[in-house]
Design brief:
Layout: H1 6-13, H2 19-29, H3 33-50, H4 62-70, H5 78-99, E1 103-104, E2 116-118, E3 124-128, E4 132-136, E5 141-148, E6 151-165, E7 172-175, E8 180-183, E9 187-192, E10 197-204, E11 206-210, E12 215-219, E13 222-227, E14 231-232, E15 236-237, H6 242-254, H7 257-266, H8 272-281, H9 284-297, H10 306-310, H11 314-330
Parallel strand pairs: 6-7
Antiparallel strand pairs: 1-3, 2-5, 3-4, 4-6, 5-6, 6-9, 7-8, 8-11, 9-10, 10-13, 11-12, 13-14, 13-15
Helix pairs in contact: 1-3, 3-11, 6-7, 7-9, 8-9
């Protein structure tokens, strides 16, 4: 497959591709680093556009609307139409869950809600048409815990899995003993190291790791660890320098200002992704240090203000993140 053109990438981000085309794009992204980087650039630009303030819409011409409302309306025959709609709804609920469900790739056996899967020395793959696939690693335990409308909820008790999700974002969830992983349209590896730790590596797209106190939004080519006691840690890029990773690990364990100084001293512009997560995890003088360091590195767009950043206002942080993603991806 040739490299993805801009139109295909934009359609992928807007969830406008059909199932077959979306699947082929995901397959290509797993092996093409160039298209992965271009997709993240386009995603950053799209997020930046979505973060722009809304444009005021002119007031409608009420006189024209009133004339249209006064025009006679055609008479509708509701009886047959209502019966047809109710029949289609009934057929949908009877046949859709069985026709479009998770199945084992080996024998097409249906995996029902509540089913536990346990692997030995070989991986097992599950697929669901128009949704995606899961590869459960050896020595792993997984449950299809719940199905809530279009939402699919799994529980990874132990072991590892690789998820290739074609469905729209926020429909695929994997709970582990330590954290909840929420798919935002991506390909990722998830591993339960033990009852305390979970590790995530995102290959394409992004994943939100959600804990009781903090969340981490992990982009492509980044990883994140989460503990049962403290939730998700600060995510880092896979190519982050050893000195930066060591400094960040020390700070997360100590929370001391001296260790935070080392984190900032070792950070590259690309590590701004990690530093952005520090704003919500710090307070007082520590937060001021992080915010001021990042302002020097990444100018604030309107209407982002220093005071709003110091208060960790969610909307302000999202707007700044959308702006900075351009710089993170260009490094």
């Amino acid at each position: 497959m040739k490299h993805l053109d801009a139109q295909t990438q934009q359609a992928f981000l807007a969830d406008e591709l059909d199932v077959e085309k979306r699947s082929s794009v995901l397959d290509h992204l797993q092996h093409c680093r160039k298209c992965q980087n271009q997709l993240e650039w386009n995603r950053a630009g799209r997020n930046l556009a979505l973060a722009l303030p809304p444009v005021e819409v002119p007031s409608p011409n009420w006189s024209v609307l009133a004339k249209r409302l006064e025009q006679p309306k055609p008479k509708l025959r509701f009886g047959y139409g209502l019966i047809t709609v109710l029949t289609l709804i009934a057929l949908f609920w009877v046949f859709w869950p069985k026709a479009n469900s998770w199945r084992l790739s080996s024998d097409q056996k249906r995996v029902a809600k509540g089913t536990w899967l346990r692997t030995a020395d070989q991986p097992v793959q599950l697929q669901r048409e128009a949704f995606g696939s899961l590869t459960l690693g050896p020595q792993s335990v997984l449950q299809l815990a719940d199905i809530r409308g279009p939402e699919q909820h799994f529980y990874l008790q132990s072991g590892s899995l690789t998820a290739v999700i074609e469905a729209p974002p926020r429909l695929f969830f994997v709970q582990t003993p330590a954290v909840l992983a929420v798919d935002l349209g991506c390909v990722y590896d998830l591993q339960v190291v033990d009852t305390e730790w979970t590790e995530l590596i995102v290959r394409v797209g992004r994943v939100s790791m959600q804990g009781p106190h903090f969340s981490s939004e992990v982009p492509a080519n980044a990883r994140c660890r989460a503990s049962k006691s403290r939730g998700p840690q600060v995510p880092i890029y896979l190519d982050a320098p050893f000195e930066f990773v060591a400094a960040l690990t020390n700070w997360e364990a100590s929370q001391r200002l001296a260790d935070l100084d080392q984190v900032l001293a070792k950070a590259r512009p690309r590590d701004g992704m990690s530093l952005w997560h520090l704003i919500a995890r710090t307070q007082g003088e520590a937060r001021q240090q992080v915010v001021d360091f990042m302002i020097d590195m990444f100018p604030m767009p309107e209407p982002v203000t220093r005071s709003a950043l110091l208060s960790a206002d969610p909307k302000t942080l999202e707007a700044w993140q959308a702006q900075m993603e351009w710089d993170w991806q260009s490094q």
